[in-house]
Design brief:
Elements: E1 5-9, H1 14-26, E2 30-34, H2 42-52
Parallel strand pairs: 1-2
Length: 58
């Protein structure tokens, strides 16, 4: 079974809709998460930033 990616989105955002359409077209399995209704926790944000390897900017 293929792993799913977490897709954090704001459904009214046109860029989010385009990204979701691309994921669907590529057959990428994902778990949808509405960013307003289910905000990322501080721990998640820290973890994602660490995994990215990019510096934190203001």
């Amino acid at each position: 079974m293929a792993a799913s990616v977490l897709f954090v989105e704001y459904p009214k955002c046109s860029t989010c809709r385009k990204a979701k359409k691309w994921l669907d077209e590529q057959g990428v399995a994902y778990i949808d998460r509405h960013i307003v209704e289910d905000n990322p926790s501080a721990e998640e944000l820290f973890s994602w930033q660490q995994a990215s390897g990019l510096p934190v900017r203001r």
